[in-house]
């Protein structure tokens, strides 16, 4: 079990690799799910990255930027860590990006701290991640960041009693806790908190329970896909809408399953940081460029998280090249106009400070498609869960 | 005897060769080694004793969480962590096995799945202890045997996992040839006859299941120490099913099958996923189909099948 010959071999091969590598090329490793039930995330990331490169070219500063994609499948921290190590040691990447699920991001924390590799999180939304390594930067959002403003907005609308219904898993519980804290701090009451089994698609008993309590609003947090569809359907059919119980959500009406929800979704309120219907030149340019490359592509929060992540990487490369700590330093406090609106990299939490919009689902009279119409900015905040 | 020594030597050589040939892929090679340990545990239970299970992840996850919690709260020593994992795996297997081993066939398979699901749900609920869906963080294993620190490139991790895998393999090779191992084989082949000669099937199956649980626990503990994070997915059905596929691919009942199947499955997975991150699942699917159709006994039966084919015999591989 002697390590010496191995070390020598390793040193020799690394020396070879260094001398043959193209000096001006900076590689970015993207760890994301590209296969299986969560493959959509990988697709969104890749489309956004390609769109950014089509718009802004493939060079930042003096450096040519290339992306290497690695498939992590789903929630798989073992694989995530091994892939990150492989990208760093074998592919010699200088930046890492991607990361859809919290455990996958947490698993690479010690690795990137040791290698001093700036790592841009495109999605994973648990506050605790960034505390794990000073090299994590996040261009998505955190759950408290959108749930707490939703609670405050609801109170300002005259809503005084809310029942929270969340899927019984980490993100759902985070959403419940931060909503409840913010709502009660304002003076409202959360009369009941229901935690629903993650895999259920029959919400009739749960929503009947909500209906019987007759709160002013129901706050929901569900993973996308069939549960959201079924929940909104039951919300309408059981007469909660007719009873005037307002629906409050966050990502439930996100673009990739919005059309499938159909007319049931019209009028649903959500608080979130990005709508593909955001009215700005940056957003229109982003949508047009993406549609040109991928006519069937759908733009949602995962796309914009990746798009802004790439922007951040370009800025870091332009400022600091391959120097990891200097790159992170350059990124902190950086502000720019994103397709979602103005954003700024918070120097303390390393998650972007951004607008949280209140949106209402409506049918676009021109295209006939459903969209999240932003009716106002309810908060401009960074990661509200950082100190919890 | 010489032949057995030769094959052990072969494994050692392969371990060394892999290390020298793929110095950049040590993290991936280490994952293969950990998976081999899990598949070996399945080979003992399924291949040798004929206990059909799709819930081996239950013991793997128990071992992983036990080793993780042990490292955080008690002692960071990796070898002690392995023991903690083994004990947790064995305990869970013994307790659940006490009920499960009274059943057979489909009932047994369903119950093994259920045990793993229950474990996953308990870990999900006990957020304060396990970290829930975020995963168990803060595992920082100490030096292996007080000598080797876990390094960035994964050299220590690789040799550590390799040593554990090799010892598990040796132990299983001994067990398989022991009277106990032979009686398990007997139960697998013909339970009625074993009853007739006065063997308590239930006890032996339970003992085998517990041993398998301990080994799966060791695999889980290894993964907790190498990744330094444990997630709920270590209890996942996918893990149990993939381990089973690897075992079937390699060939059940022979320990080499577990090694061969795992290495081939994971290597193909790795290469295919690296070349085409979107469609690699097709390649894996095709591989498994081909092996199941043409080599029902797994890849270890390939040389024999080829020999038969060369002689012009029919039923190659059967």
Automatic annotation (TrEMBL), chain A:
CDD domains xrefs: PBP1_RPA0985_benzoate-like
Pfam families in the cross-refs: Peripla_BP_6 (PF13458)
Membrane-spanning segments: none
Key words, A-Z: Amino-acid transport, Signal, Transport
Keyword Signal carried by entry: yes
BP-aspect Gene Ontology terms: amino acid transport
Annotated SUPFAM superfamilies: Periplasmic binding protein-like I
InterPro entries attached to this UniProt entry: BCAA_transport (IPR051010), Leu-bd (IPR028081), Leu_Ile_Val-bd (IPR000709), Peripla_BP_I (IPR028082)
Signal sequence region: 1-23
Record domain Leucine-binding protein: where: 25-362
Keyword Signal included in the entry's annotation: yes
Family, similarity comment: Belongs to the leucine-binding protein family.
Protein name stated in the entry: Aliphatic amidase expression-regulating protein
Species assigned in the record: Pseudooceanicola marinus
Gene name of the encoded protein: amiC_4
UniProtKB/TrEMBL annotation, chain B:
Any one annotated GO CC term: plasma membrane
Compartment annotation: Cell membrane
Domain of life: Bacteria
The keyword Cell membrane is annotated on this UniProt entry: yes
Keyword Amino-acid biosynthesis applies: no
Record GO terms (molecular function): branched-chain amino acid transmembrane transporter activity
Membrane topology: Multi-pass membrane protein
Transmembrane segments: 28-51, 82-101, 157-176, 206-226, 280-302
Keywords carried by this UniProt record: Cell membrane, Membrane, Transmembrane, Transmembrane helix
Major localisation: membrane
Record InterPro entries: ABC_transp_permease (IPR001851), LivM-like (IPR043428)
Name the record gives this protein: Leucine/isoleucine/valine transporter permease subunit
Native species: Pseudooceanicola marinus
């Amino acid at each position: 079990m002697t390590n010496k010959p191995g070390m020598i071999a390793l040193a020799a091969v690394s020396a070879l690799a260094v001398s043959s590598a193209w000096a001006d090329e900076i590689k970015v490793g993207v760890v994301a799910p590209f296969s299986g039930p969560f493959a959509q995330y990988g697709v969104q990331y890749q489309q956004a990255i390609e769109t950014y490169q089509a718009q802004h070219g493939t060079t930042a500063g003096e450096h040519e930027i290339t992306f290497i994609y690695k498939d992590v499948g789903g929630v798989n921290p073992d694989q995530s860590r091994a892939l990150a190590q492989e990208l760093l040691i074998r592919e010699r990447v200088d930046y890492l990006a991607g990361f859809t699920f919290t455990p996958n991001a947490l698993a690479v924390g010690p690795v990137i701290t040791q290698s001093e590799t700036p790592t841009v999180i495109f999605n994973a939304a648990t506050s605790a991640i960034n505390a794990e390594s000073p090299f994590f930067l996040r261009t998505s959002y955190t759950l408290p960041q959108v749930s707490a403003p939703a609670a405050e907005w609801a109170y300002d609308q005259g809503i005084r009693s809310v029942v929270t219904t969340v899927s019984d898993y980490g993100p759902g519980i985070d959403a419940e806790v931060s909503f409840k804290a913010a709502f009660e701090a304002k003076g409202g009451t959360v009369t009941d908190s229901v935690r629903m089994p993650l895999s259920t698609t029959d919400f009739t008993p749960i929503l009947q329970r909500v209906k019987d309590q007759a709160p002013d609003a129901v706050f929901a947090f569900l993973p996308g896909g069939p549960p959201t569809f079924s929940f909104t359907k039951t919300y309408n059919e059981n007469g909660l809408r007719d009873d005037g119980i307002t629906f409050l959500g966050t990502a439930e009406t996100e673009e990739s399953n919005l059309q499938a929800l159909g007319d049931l979704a019209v009028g649903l309120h959500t608080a979130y940081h990005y709508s593909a219907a955001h009215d700005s030149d940056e957003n229109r340019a982003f949508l047009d460029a993406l549609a040109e490359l991928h006519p069937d592509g759908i733009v949602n929060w995962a796309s914009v998280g990746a798009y802004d992540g790439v922007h951040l990487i370009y800025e870091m490369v332009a400022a600091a090249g391959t120097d990891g700590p200097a790159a992170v330093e350059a990124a902190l406090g950086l502000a720019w106009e994103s397709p979602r609106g103005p954003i700024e990299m918070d120097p303390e939490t390393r998650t972007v400070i951004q607008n949280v919009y209140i949106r209402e689902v409506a049918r676009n009279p021109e295209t006939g498609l459903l969209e999240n119409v932003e009716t106002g900015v309810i908060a401009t905040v960074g990661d509200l869960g950082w100190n919890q | 005897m010489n032949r057995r020594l030769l094959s052990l030597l072969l494994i050692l050589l392969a371990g060394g060769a892999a290390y020298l040939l793929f110095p950049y892929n040590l993290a991936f090679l280490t994952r293969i080694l950990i998976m081999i340990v899990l598949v070996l545990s399945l080979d003992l239970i399924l291949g040798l004793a004929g206990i059909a299970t799709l819930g081996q992840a239950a013991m793997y996850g128990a071992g992983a969480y036990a080793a993780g919690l042990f490292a955080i709260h008690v002692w960071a020593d990796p070898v002690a962590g392995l023991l903690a994992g083994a004990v947790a795996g064995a305990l869970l297997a013994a307790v659940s096995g006490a009920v499960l081993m009274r059943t057979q066939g489909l009932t047994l398979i369903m119950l093994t799945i259920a045990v793993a699901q229950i474990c996953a749900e308990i870990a999900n609920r006990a957020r304060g202890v396990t970290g829930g869906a975020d995963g168990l963080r803060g595992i920082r294993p100490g030096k292996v045997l007080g000598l080797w620190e876990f390094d960035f490139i994964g050299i220590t991790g690789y040799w550590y996992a390799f040593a554990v895998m090799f010892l598990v393999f040796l132990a299983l090779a001994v067990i398989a040839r022991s009277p106990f191992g032979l009686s398990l084989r007997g139960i697998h082949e013909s339970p009625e006859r074993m009853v007739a000669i006065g063997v308590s099937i239930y006890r032996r199956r339970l003992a085998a299941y517990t041993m398998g649980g301990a080994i799966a626990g060791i695999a889980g503990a290894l993964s907790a120490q190498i990744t330094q994070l444990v997630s709920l997915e270590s209890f996942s059905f996918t893990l149990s099913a993939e381990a089973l596929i690897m075992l079937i691919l390699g060939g059940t009942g022979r320990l080499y099958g577990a090694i061969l199947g795992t290495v081939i499955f994971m290597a193909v997975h790795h290469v295919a996923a690296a070349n085409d991150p979107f469609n690699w699942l097709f390649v894996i699917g095709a591989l498994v189909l081909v092996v199941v159709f043409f080599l029902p006994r797994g890849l270890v039966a390939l040389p024999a099948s080829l020999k038969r084919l060369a002689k012009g015999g029919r039923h190659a591989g059967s």
